[in-house]
Structures are given as C-alpha cells and as structure tokens.
Amino acid sequence: MNGNERRPTSRTARFGVFEADLPAGELRREGRRVKLQDQPYRLLIYLLERPGELVTREELRAALWPDGSFVDFEQGLNTAIKKVRLALRDSAENPRFVQTFPRRGYRFIAPVGWEDPRPQPESAVTVRSPGGPRKWILAVAVAAGMMPGYWLFRGREPRGPAGVPVPLTSYPGVQYAAAFSPDGRQVAFAWDGSSGDNFDIYVKTRDSESPTRLTDDPAPDLSPAWSPDGQRIAFLRDLSGGRVAIMLIPAAGGFPVQIAALWAPIVPQYRNLAFTPDGNWLITAASGKEGDAVGLVLCPAETGACRPLTKPGGGYDINPALSPDGRSLAFLRGPLLATLDLYVVPLDRSWSPAGEARRLTAWNRFALSPAWVRDGSEIVMASGEYFKTNLWRISVSGSRKPAVVAAAGDGVLLPAMAPDGSMAFTQRRKRVSIWSLDLRRAGPPQSHLLRWPASSSRIDTHPRFSPDGGRVVFMSTRSGTGQIWIANADGSGARQLTAMTATFVDMPAWSADGTSILFRALKEGHFDFYTIGAAGGKPRLLMRGIPGDGAPKVSADGRWIYFHSKRGGEYQIWRMPARGGSAVQLTRGGGMGVRDSPDGRTLYFVRYAGGDSASLWRMPAGGGEETPVLPSLLGESFDVTGKGIYFVGACRSGGSCPIVFHAFADGRNIELPAPTLPGNNGLSISPDGQTLLRAHITEIGADIMVLNFLD
User: Is residue 565 in some structural domain?
Assistant: First the structure.
C-alpha cells in the first residue's frame, strides 16, 4: 500500500490489546480510552495504514506537516513518536510496535487488523485473528450452517478478570498442566524435577509449598486429570515411538495402572485427557496407527476397548475439554499441530456426538488446551504466534467477540479453572541464543566459545552463513514475533528483513549467489515458501505449500530447491526448480532437513526415530540409493563441509548435547572441545571452515500461576 492509497475513515484498526477508532479519533487499550494528542494520533494512524513498510521522515513531513506548517519538524516528529510509544507502552530499544530506522523513518512491526463497522457484503465477511490481520472469505451458506451467532458480529465486550497473577509453583525447571481437585483444595501438575531430566506427576495443596510426588517412572508422565470423585488421577505416559499409555493412580499415592495404550501425539504443553462427569470414561486424542489422522476417542476408566468420538478427516483433533454440565465437548482441530481452531460438539448421554461439531474460531493459528469457565458460557484457550501465545475468552454462543485475558500476560498456556472461579495457567520462559565457536583455536572449551554479538535476549535460531561467508541470516523474536533477520558474520549490523503476520516465519536459507533469502511462513494452515532480497524489500511467494512442507534449501548450483514434504503420506525429500515449477519426490525411505554437499553432488538428510532422536542418511542429488551415514544425532542440527560433517550429537543425561565432527577421510567422530549445550535450534559452518554458529537454549522454564478470574 502506498501513501496515496488511504484506508476508509470508517474503520477500526486493531493491534495487540489496542484499537484505533478512526471515526471517533480514539486510541483504546482493552476498551478503555488512552490519552493521545491529535498530532501523535495522526502519526500513529499513518503508520497503521502501512504496516510492515518503512515510512520515511520525508513522507511523514509531507503528510502531517504540509507546507512547512511546523517550523521545527525534527523536534516535532521526535516528540510525536515518543508520545506514541508512551501511549502504547512501547520501547525504542526493544520495540513491539514502532521500529526506528535512524535518520530514515519508522515501521509499524506488529500485525494490524482492520474492522469495518458497516455491514459486510453478503458474499464475504472479514474476521480478525489474535495478534494479526486475517481475511477469511466464507460463503454465507457455510457461515449460516456451521457458525450460527458467530462472534464476527460485535456484541458487548466481556468483563476482564481482576487481580494480578501470583505463583502457584515456583520450582526449578518446568511445571505444566495444572489440574484442580473437585473441591479445589489440591492441584496436580507435571514437573520435570529439580534436575530437569524427566516429567512426573506431582500434587500439592494450594496453601502449601511442598509438593508430593506421585510417579517416578523413567518415562515422561503428563496431562494429569482428576476423577470427579477426587479419588484418582489419570495421566498420559510416553511409551516412545509414538505410543502413549493412559494411566490411573490413587490421588493419595499408590501404584499406577495402565488402562489403554494408543498411537497419539504427546507434548508437554498439551492437556490431552479429560474425565466424563460420571468418572467412567476418559477422552483423549489418538490415531489408528502411526502417521494416521488423530481424532478424539472415548476409553473406559477401568479396562476395555476405546471407541472413536470424532473423525477429523485428515489432520488433528486434540485437547478435549468437557463443559461443566458434560453435554458439550470442546476441542482443537486443524491440518497441523501448529494451525488449530476451536470446535464444540454436543454429546448425548452415552458420550457420543449428538450433532455436528461447530467451529468457534477461524484463526488457523497456534492454539493450545481449551478450558471452560464455571457457568459454561465461555471457553478460555491459548492462541497466537508460536513464540507469543495469549489467553483468550471465547463466547460459546457467539454473543461476544473474543477478548484477550490481558492480566495473564504473554507466553501463557494451559488454563485450568478452579471451583472458586480462579484460573491457573502456565507462564513459560525460554531464551535461545546463537553462539560462535572458532574452529581454529585450541584450549579450554570456554576460551573459544563466544556469544555471537547479533544474538538478542529473546529467541534466535537457525543461523546460516551466506555463500561468501560475509553475512548470516537467522530467525529472531526480538521484534515481538518470529521474523527473518540478517547481520554481518561478526555479529554487527543486525537488521530485520521481514515483518509478516504468520504463525511461523523461519528456516531461512541463502540463494546460491547470495542475493536473496528463501524461507517458509505458516499462513492459513500452509507452510508457504517465500523469497526476499538480502537488501530487503517485499517478500515474494515462491510456492504455495501444503501441510507438512518445510525446511527449504537452495542447491549449490542454484538450480533447485530441496525441501521435505508429507504430500505423499509420509515425510520425504522433494525438489523443485528454483524458478518455480512442479515438485518431484527424491527419497523413498523417508527424510527431513535436507542439506547438499558443497559440490552439489550429494544430499544429506535425517530420519526420525521418535522425538528429536534421528539418524543421518545420504543419496545422490539426482536420486538413487539411500545409505546411512550416522546412527544418531540431534534432529536437523548439522552442516556439511568438504572435509566432513559437523553435527549435534545425541543428548546426555541432563539435556546437554555435544558438538561432533564426522571426518570423511577416516570416518571418525571427533567431539569438539566445547561445552555440551542443550537444544536442536540450528548449526552452520562458514564457507572457509573456520567458524561454527550454533543456536542453543540458554534458559527454559515454566511456572504455574493463579489469577483471580471472575467469570
């Protein structure tokens, strides 16, 4: 959008917890007016109308101070920007909304959604998703049939919760998935322990600091759920290899009993288990076999066969939550675990569906674990960008628009309601930094491992050296959401390349000539491939992907783009012409995370055996025999040089993972004299073989918080 294409003045712009009402000339935060003078307000609107674009100081002078109407333009503009930032509670050093380009101008970097209060055309409606603009064109027949009373039409704003979150747990490591006992006096949760080595189920009273450990199995135990009589706790146990067991244990402690084993996704951040109100059944997510679509199933709480509840038709139905009266089941549905929406289906007295599932959101965003409020009128769930989720209140009837639970903050998930109306949720902490290792130096490990200067205090991953070794592209969340950034190889001159609204923007890779960047973005349920100039500009769509496409890589000669895809039913390596065209499958035995050799003759890729555990394989670039190279490495953190392969080895007890060099000359694996670091977040070697960049986790943790949530 250029400066001459103005938006209608009868619209409202929404960004984060703010909205700018153009007809009223007001800025509001969560419905409450924020004082902002006329000139700063006009400046803000001008930036909102061009989100993601650099608006120069000259353009702002012409638009807001025409004909030299303000004698000291520089001071006036600087003052106006400061007032905008003050109103938005923004920071110039770590901006979430307005980014400064010194001596050049400004860019509004947060996603912006526009809402027109006038009636929409009958053929389409515009829907705003959390954290960004989304325009979904829905046929009226679909809207009428699937979403009656949908929240597209503005009703009264829900009353926000009062109070400030206080810690319910504050132990070392990660605590997930609080579940209140029926009387509300106790809470069960999963904790990876003081050493962070394994999740087990713990119970504590709300007024006590010391928890009681219920399980101590070497396998991870997750998703606790109390029986309605308060006597038992059900949980999920990871059996590895894609298998999950439903377990039951007395709430007072005792021996756990397995009641079912299923193919199912198990993720610590999910709550994937729910009791029926009579205590006789458990609802969880499962598939018929590994790789099948995942649906919800009903399993007896004693013994017996599970039976299906929902049929997703491809993709996932996960995170079940029963309404307080037991007559409705909320769950998340989507083509990928990273793009899900909220559905509700009525249940009959046998706990079978009594009608079609009704879709309550059309966000196609990252979402997690819904929970019902006490009176059943609303559902709270986490949704937003992958690295920045918020809790949202969603009206079941559609009488009110979704509203963010602002008091809970960012990076929150797993809401759980207590009988007294308070709400527990998990607050996550995660920092991933990029570190530099000089491969020429010897000596103690700490003497040559340095934090890369371009790394931030947020999440920085997947660094990749340019073909000439002079620059590095990487993903960073320092602007609030994950975007593509670029810096000089020494870490100087970091700048943002993209400002896209998407659940993921990641996996950057250089073109063979170093003039552009290839990356993927998850938008509307698909991982699409884009290119953007290394000097900046507007991203160009290269390929409209399908669920499961990922990790694009340009071949050494620049002719091909390699990527992995699930379009054939399981993950395989594919390639397509770099200029665009049809994709062709290369591997037959499975593959992900492809890299090619410097001479372009050989492809290297991984095959997963469960979790991040993988083996490394190779094949001729044009197709042919697939042969093993390494029996074990951590995910896709490897890079290929002319002399060998650098990779992150399998992690040891405590989560530390070594950096290893596999020499082509003699086949030896040589562990580098560097600290063993946690995380599978990308590794890159400079073209001259002298520098290694690796992204690894520097902080990870999660506490359970309680908020006075008055529903």
Answer: yes
